[in-house]
Amino acid sequence: MSKKKKYEDLLKDKSLFKKNTASGLLSKDANYRITFEDKKYFQDDIPIAKINIKPQVRQKIDTDSESYRELVESIRRRGVLQPIIVVKSVENGEYELVSGERRVTAAKECRYEFIPAVIFEDLTESDILEIQLIENLQREDLTTFEKALGLKTLAEKMFKVDTIDELIKLLSNKLFSKNNNSTSTVEVDTNYSINLRQIYRYVLLFAFPEDCIELVKNSSKFPVRVFDILYKYKNHPEITNIFKLIAEGKLNSTNLNTFLNKLDSNINKEEPAKKKRIRIYNKLKKIDTNFDELLKDDLIVKDKNKAEEIIKQIEYKLNRLKEKLFSK
């Protein structure tokens, strides 16, 4: 296996840059390749004060982390070795940062006025998003939520889908369909290849309720493997509590299945021992009528938490009923 090239070495590689146009930018991982035909670029030192930084994949930079402090010390001693990537504005001569926010922040801390940059003049918004996502997703300091959000955005761009349900269904078909012979790695427009299973595992997060997503967002390293395990429980009334236990470190991908088996056994105890064949229509019609009666009346809620809990249980049981009726 060949060693990965450093970014500064790639910039010197004549096979990547020819005739003052960018025929390709290769990120740190050679599995990801970004190509931009006929995009003009040049390299120069630019004023840090003229760089505009828009929100990227990373929610914030932890300036107290060990890796960031090491970066600051390295820049203080040796300067910025890896150029940032920017787009030059024709209107005001300023620069929009595409990649390298940590380096810019660290250089500011070291009181640098200029920083080396690869400067493009005509990247589209789509090109910029593509570079930012692929560059940032390889960072080790990204949280689980940041990586999941980045992969979701990248996958939506790759597969042109509008909803998380569409995306999960598409990925599931590509990965698990018996009639599908596609590989688990996808290459889009020869620009980059990425592991589908990795995308699938991370984007499952966004199928869960908002409370669960928020718990992951506020956790530095939430175990991503649990999303796959918990996916079929996403509508369970206890799902938020399960996420809380994982965020607190009381549950993990090792002991989660044991916990869920106990949860399932408790649900099964509530079901009758002998299953009877019943005509479902009349029973559903009766439930529907009861709901109609409820909606006609003026409702008084003394305990909103209890009412919300009961509604969650009803929703969960309705979903189980739908699966039982229509999944065959």
Automatic annotation (TrEMBL):
GO terms for molecular function: DNA binding. Transmembrane segments: none annotated. Residues 44-137 form the ParB-like N-terminal domain. GO terms for biological process: chromosome segregation. InterPro entries: Chromosome_partition/occlusion (IPR050336), ParB/RepB/Spo0J (IPR004437), ParB/Sulfiredoxin_sf (IPR036086), ParB_N (IPR003115). Signal peptide: none annotated. GO terms for cellular component: chromosome. PANTHER family: CHROMOSOME-PARTITIONING PROTEIN PARB-RELATED. This is ParB-like N-terminal domain-containing protein. It comes from Deferribacter desulfuricans (strain DSM 14783 / JCM 11476 / NBRC 101012 / SSM1).
